[in-house]
Each structure stands twice: as C-alpha cells, then as structure tokens.
Amino acid sequence: MSQDALISRLNELPRIESVLQELLAMVNRDDFSFAELSQKLAMDQVLSARLLRMANSAYFAGNQPIYNLHEAVVRVGTKAVRTLVSSSIICGAFPKVETLDLKSYWAETFDIAMIASRLADQAKLDSSEVFTTGVLHNIGELMIHALVPEQALIIRERIEQGMKPLAAQRQVLGTDAVELGVKLAEAWQFPLEMKDAIENINHPGRAKVAKRLACLLYLARDISRVWDTMQDEEEKQCYLAEHPAATALGISPGRAFVVDQIRGQGSQMAHDILTM
C-alpha cells in the first residue's frame, strides 16, 4: 500500500466531534472559566461521568459526595480536568483495535505524557500542551492497527526479526507512524507546535517551531523505557545529569524524585479510561 493510499483512508477513523474539539481547545487555554467548562462537559455523558467519578474517588473525595459538574471541576482542579479531558477524548477516538493491546499501548503513552508534563515547568513549557502532545506522540502506530491490521501484524513480525519499527513500517506501508500521526493531528486541527513536535520527536533538533517540546517528549520516552531498570536514586540522578536532552532543557538531576512519584499512574489512567 502506498503512502497516499493509506493517508486517503484517514476519513475512516473516528472524528473528534465539534463539542469535544471545543473542549480540547478550552482546557488548553489559561483563562477558561469553571462555569463555561462545566456547560461544555455536560454535553458529553461519558466525560461527565468520568469527571464525577474522579471527584468522588478516594484521592479527591471530601466530606460529601458530589453530583454537580461545576462542583466536581472545582474539587479536582484545572490540572486534573485538563488531563482527564485530553486523555479521554483522544483515547475514545479508538475504542476497539483487534491487533493491539490497547491497555498496554495507553499505559505506555500516558506514562510518557505524564513524565513530560511533570517536567514541563523546568523546561519552561505549558504542562497541558505537553500532556496532550504526549498522548498524541505515537498515535500513528494506533492508526496503522486501526486502518490496516493485517499489515500491522506483518510489521510486528519484521520488528521481531530485528528491523527497527519505523523502517519496518516504511517497508510495508510506504509511510510510518510519525508521518501518519502528523496527518491525524492536522485532520484534528491541533496547533502547529504539537504537529512539529510529533513529527520531530526522534530528532528534536530538526523541529522548526517546537524544539523544546520535541526534546522534552524525546527525554520522557527515554525515561519511561529505562527508569525501572535503575537501582537507586543516585543512578537515576546520574541518568538525568548525563542525558543531553535534560541538559538542553535545563532539567536538573534533582527532578528524579518527580518521576518516581508518578510511576504507575499511566497504567492506572489507562485502566480507568478503558473500563468506563
């Protein structure tokens, strides 16, 4: 299958409804009001139910149960709402994919997005934009499994035989997950900075307008892959001190504890969203 033929099938993928696109745009603004957000959330039953469940969870629960969306938004706060909205909308666009373990895919994706967003302050980036871009960073792989599952299995076999993932994708499809992810981000009308970071996550220096964002996602992905193999805090701090992306972004070795705090939360988020 040629690149053009595969990209022409993008319209077969679920589209984000206009109200959800408006919600995504709203939560990535600095100045949205809780009342405005509550009104938009009320238009989507699934998101409303997830927010109420979050507000009444053991982590957030107060003395009284909450049944009102506005009160739920106030209780959990803007950061948690932004995370919930971004992850739920993007995850919900791919409800069923037969050839991919969605729970594992989203657990890894959310883990990378959460690491990046928690390090965003030192990198002088907006944590909400970072999280949303992190959730999208490997969406092209999901697209391959959704659009051409038979070819996805062939690609998996070639990777198991030693080929690099992007090379295997290009050999079978004439395109790769990165290019497809950028096309989907364009179709879903995400900002230029997000598209630039997705396109250049493997080579942040090539990014035109989002070098720091691409660099942070590159770092977060590396951290996610190796963090649990390290023995102690000293080794983790040395890893950050020696990683060129951390140095370029000004992320100090002392931030290792932040990564430790959120390990496992990506899996929990994937479980919560997929079981709703």
UniProtKB/TrEMBL annotation:
<feature type="domain" description="HDOD">
    <location>
        <begin position="13"/>
        <end position="204"/>
    </location>
</feature>
<dbReference type="InterPro" id="IPR052340">
    <property type="entry name" value="RNase_Y/CdgJ"/>
</dbReference>
<dbReference type="InterPro" id="IPR013976">
    <property type="entry name" value="HDOD"/>
</dbReference>
<protein>
    <submittedName>
        <fullName>HDOD domain-containing protein</fullName>
    </submittedName>
</protein>
<dbReference type="Pfam" id="PF08668">
    <property type="entry name" value="HDOD"/>
</dbReference>
